[in-house]
Amino acid sequence: MSTDPLVLFMPSGKRGHFPVGTPVLEAARSLGVYVESVCGGRATCGRCQIEVQEGRFAKHGITSANEHISAIGPKELRYAEKRELKPGRRLSCSATIEGDLVIDVPQDVQVNAQTIRKDVDTRSIERNPAVHMCYVEVEEPDMHKPLGDLDRLKAALEKDWGYKELQVDAYLLPKLQQILRKEKWGVTAAIHHGEETGRPTLIALWPGLKNEAYGIACDIGSTTIAMHLSSLLSGRTLASAGASNPQIRFGEDLMSRVSYVMMNPDGREAMTLAVREAVNNLVDKVCADGGIAREDILDAVFVGNPIMHHLFLGIDPTELGGAPFALAVSGAMHLKSSDIGLPMNPGTRVYMLPCIAGHVGADAAAATLSEGPHRQDEMMLLVDVGTNAEIVLGNRQRTVAASSPTGPAFEGAEISGGQRAAPGAIERVRIDPDTLEPKFRIIGVEQWSDEPGFAEAASRTGITGICGSAIIEVIAEMYLSGIISEDGVIDGSLAQIQEKCEAVFRPDLRKKNNARSPRITANGRTFSYLLHEGSPRIAITQNDVRAIQLAKAALYAGVKLLMDKLGIDHVDQIRFAGAFGSFIDPKYAMVLGLIPDCELENVKAVGNAAGTGARMALLNRDYRREVEETVGRIEKIETALEPKFQEHFVYAMAIPNKVDPFPKLSAAVKLPERKSDGDGSDGPADGSPRRRSREERAARRNRG
Amino acid sequence: MSTDPLVLFMPSGKRGHFPVGTPVLEAARSLGVYVESVCGGRATCGRCQIEVQEGRFAKHGITSANEHISAIGPKELRYAEKRELKPGRRLSCSATIEGDLVIDVPQDVQVNAQTIRKDVDTRSIERNPAVHMCYVEVEEPDMHKPLGDLDRLKAALEKDWGYKELQVDAYLLPKLQQILRKEKWGVTAAIHHGEETGRPTLIALWPGLKNEAYGIACDIGSTTIAMHLSSLLSGRTLASAGASNPQIRFGEDLMSRVSYVMMNPDGREAMTLAVREAVNNLVDKVCADGGIAREDILDAVFVGNPIMHHLFLGIDPTELGGAPFALAVSGAMHLKSSDIGLPMNPGTRVYMLPCIAGHVGADAAAATLSEGPHRQDEMMLLVDVGTNAEIVLGNRQRTVAASSPTGPAFEGAEISGGQRAAPGAIERVRIDPDTLEPKFRIIGVEQWSDEPGFAEAASRTGITGICGSAIIEVIAEMYLSGIISEDGVIDGSLAQIQEKCEAVFRPDLRKKNNARSPRITANGRTFSYLLHEGSPRIAITQNDVRAIQLAKAALYAGVKLLMDKLGIDHVDQIRFAGAFGSFIDPKYAMVLGLIPDCELENVKAVGNAAGTGARMALLNRDYRREVEETVGRIEKIETALEPKFQEHFVYAMAIPNKVDPFPKLSAAVKLPERKSDGDGSDGPADGSPRRRSREERAARRNRG
């Protein structure tokens, strides 16, 4: 065993023996512990700060003490005096190992007077960005060794930082001489690590020490574009901003945008310009909010669904509008920001995550990277609900993905009172199982509708409609309170005023429970449930229920196909990604049978997981390799081609499901008694949902 | 020993045994014999033609016969019928080895009806261009394997052509879908081999079979820009063109252009734009001459002296105007043509050869590549005469380089009757040693001035001045005929009309030979030699002789320093590169002592060797590695820093030289008897040339 001191780095836990006198930074690097350094050990950038954790660490057999690190030297002292070095902090480039140490690498090294406006999420992302800032002092020209300025710069970058066969962005050539001479041959180089090219590239150069570099991570959604600005040197998020996708003016949903391209000769170009302009405006906004210059953004990561991905790259998405749903590009893309009309620094690089399949995009890849089903043993289902639900299911061993054509119902389209999530929209609903009276909340108002002050508060926005999350809730609550059957039929026998009339036509209703509510009214041959009497009048019609049934059945059938593929009958974890997922109550989603049975506590909304994944790929290039490798391994299921889809779909039309038992949900929520026994033996092998409903109704009538 | 058939490829001489049935193309590839193929073995491009050489090749132990190659098959027959296959030619992708063969790989495979307008030189350059054309058939989209179009294209290029981890030019992304679908997923890809990036890159793509690709090679001289257009698939030169460098309007010589940049804020930009515009016009011209489209140019190679190199790249050349003559960039550059304002194909690549030193540019590197001192055992001196002479000396073991400040005298500047080489300029001079009467030729007229018809022919252009090559000749002839001494003094004693007057002041002249000529006339205290009485009157003055002495002494001193460095006292081969070199008669150059003693037959003008080197680097990327490696090994001598320069310079003021014996020249040309014994023992250690001449004159006077 080595008699050299033992050094343990936290939080990574990496450890090793090093000779007395080894700089801590060198020890960290040799263990692969990422500690930032721009100045290359000159004790001027202050990025390489660490802290000694004192004490006896019995588990590791280390007694760590401040005496085991060298006393502060003159260079470090100069930094501490000129800048600011918090008590206990040391510069790891200058401090040397003198005995056993436990070293903490803090994630909050902040060297400039920069204000951190917003922390996107609490997740701390281990850093290893694709762009590194490297200060070097270049040899002056020498007539005896007539190497060019650039060639001597390359030599310095190889000697001090180990970069070999460096490529150079052409735009730098005319600027080199001045930059090199301005601060007496001291320069900071931004080096992009070239996974895609195999060689590192010099992408930007500044005179003297340039001690900041930034990156943006952006999720281009069909509806919303979200962007984060992060420091590549500290990992901190300086600003976040969002904007509507201006392509909405060409079409609300994805398919109407594809149609627009097909119908209009300049449609593709117009939509590309629109989305790029919106992204450019967001760059301006995050720069203003973060107090930085656009030129200091050196790296950018973009994700989006396949159609957004293609339009952003200037690629015609028409092929994605029909079978075989051929992506023009599926692999990860490495570009310059100037290639796609995003002027930042002339050397700024752009990385786009890979798409998984024609309907499972780079956003799903990013969400996968963020939630990491492939990093764990438990079986995780990751769902991003939209016009197309993107579904990923798997664990460390195997991961599968598909999209399901849920249609726009979950987004409030095709629903009589449906609308986007906006102030005034109903977002939560409860129905009293005894009185069948509802209460609800609307976006922008704290109180429930039965609480004092609600009416006054609601008068500011009005009660304008019902948004996606509330549609889920109201239908689930209608089911729980017996207003609709497991087949989704609104029980007309509960209608108060039309009872007699109904009784004439529908003798089956007479045997139902005897609660009666004026909220249940007939619409021709079907019934609806009145949620809010006002202007507009908001009611849940039989058609609304059917639309949600179709949407949730499509989603569930997709999930089931993936479960079949993996040969599993339950999942351990469920993650809802995306804005819609953030507002869904997992309980109601499961009651409705949107998602398979699972411990409720293991169903979580993860917000903009795609944005988080983009930020991970921005801050750590290892995640780029990880997502590329993972997407390469993901097995893609094309739901339209799977013969069992139809069967799963038909069963999933029932609430929560015709055949699946949902034991964990039953343990947590009292579900109405099932009418069918759920063994699936009498399930029809095919048939459209509507046809099947008619058949079932007929069957029940016969039974009745 | 293998019992498989033995196959020998000519002209490379590479040989190997291959199993019966091996396609000839496959055998060639496995031996590293470059045989072009675009269609990848589909017998459609016709590029892979070979010929069987029949007969008994005793030296190789091969009896080669047409029966030893497979009979023409249906695919080959179809090509032969549709296109044209010359008798005896076979497609090596289809023809298989059936017995011992000697295979000739012809260098003139021509598959289109393209006219070859001009062959630049007779040199056949073995091909291995940086851009390869590769036809592939891409798999159609498949919902079960949702790889993108690009990703399937990459897979096809890896499978059929072995290209791994292919990069893609971003401009292609929006075009991919249409190109792939136009000819049913058959496309031709242009792949650039990425020495600079480590990875190959897809730079252009066409539907179907694209059976042509072109490149340009361009030498940007201070005075003239020369360009060649070559087929990358056949190696043929389709067109060549030249143009004046429009930067001349900013300054005749290099240093005046550097001054212009220093004096004018927009000077650099104006000169960059000027040279790029001229290059663009030349591209148009060679495309028109070659009958091809600009977009079909996929690769371009540029060379130039350091100042032209920098200005072309948009780099300020001011640093090159003074010590330490720092190049901004010395290594080879890999760019896109769009980086430097040369619109061709959006994917066109540009390669610039490395510069050797601050005054020894990429043109000298290209000339070195062309003439190849580093490829042979003999010691070769390569000289490119200009305002700065670029000098390379060496052999396989070791190569050194320097520049010498010859000044503009050789270009006709600083010479009283001097002018550029142009119609009407005297280009050849002979002086009758008895009568001291001259005869000459002028550019544009066949006859010598003493031949019938000269006056009439010359009246069209006039006799306008004397160009560089004739200045060398007239001064050498003046020396050979005794008009000037080895010290370069015009012998006033030969002046007819001033004899008496001279005799009074200069008793030393009385002992001279008694030829007398009215052409020798006094100018104040010195004399001149009248070459042509007319308008203008063209005479060689003592100042003219001195200017040439200074220039040639600088060149020779530079050569001597390089010889010192290598420890050699003679050279085996001398090559004059550049336009000036093409017109110099080696004999006169050596009589004057411009170049060291050498067998006259081993002194050759090689024309635009820089252009040839550029063409080599265009047609074979192995030459790029060779020139980069060679330039890396060349030892650079900065003449200004060498203490012995002055001494060599002073000796070299004499004609041919004060101390060097020139035995080979003496054997070929009757030189005047030397006045000094040439042992060098009495040579002054320093002193300016003028001062030394005065001293010598005084010494002679005393002796006299």
Helix content of chain A: 25-40%
**Strand content range of chain A:** 15-25%
Radius of gyration of chain A: 30 Å
Biggest protein-protein contact in the assembly = A-B, 54 and 55 residues
Please state the oligomeric state of the protein chains shown: homodimer
The domain tally of chain A reads 5
Give a quick set of tags describing it.
704 residues; alpha/beta; Ubiquitin-like (UB roll); 5 domains; six-stranded mixed beta sheet; 19 helices; 29% helix; elongated; disordered C terminus
Structure description:
Two copies of one chain form a homodimer. In chain A, helix 12 crosses helix 17. The first copy, chain A, contains 19 helices and 29 strands. Chain A is an alpha/beta fold. The interface between A and B is large, with 54 and 55 residues.
Layout of helices and strands, plus pairs?
2 copies of one chain form a homodimer.
Chain A: E1 6-10, E2 15-17, H1 24-30, E3 49-52, E4 55-57, E5 62-64, H2 74-82, E6 89-91, E7 101-104, E8 131-137, H3 149-161, E9 167-168, H4 176-182, E10 186-192, E11 201-207, E12 214-220, E13 224-231, E14 237-244, H5 254-263, H6 267-290, E15 297-304, H7 306-313, E16 333-336, E17 349-352, H8 362-371, E18 380-384, E19 389-394, E20 399-404, E21 425-431, E22 438-442, H9 454-458, E23 465-466, H10 468-480, H11 499-505, E24 520-523, E25 526-532, E26 538-541, H12 542-566, E27 573-577, H13 578-583, H14 586-592, E28 603-607, H15 609-619, H16 621-633, E29 635-637, H17 645-652, H18 663-668, H19 689-703
Parallel strand pairs in A: 1-7, 9-11, 12-15, 15-17, 18-27, 20-29, 21-23, 27-28
Antiparallel strand pairs in A: 1-2, 3-6, 3-7, 4-5, 8-10, 10-11, 12-13, 13-14, 16-17, 18-19, 19-20, 21-22, 24-25, 25-26
Domain 2Fe-2S ferredoxin-type (chains A, B): 5-109
Biased composition (Basic and acidic residues) (chains A, B): 693-704
GO molecular function (chains A, B): iron-sulfur cluster binding
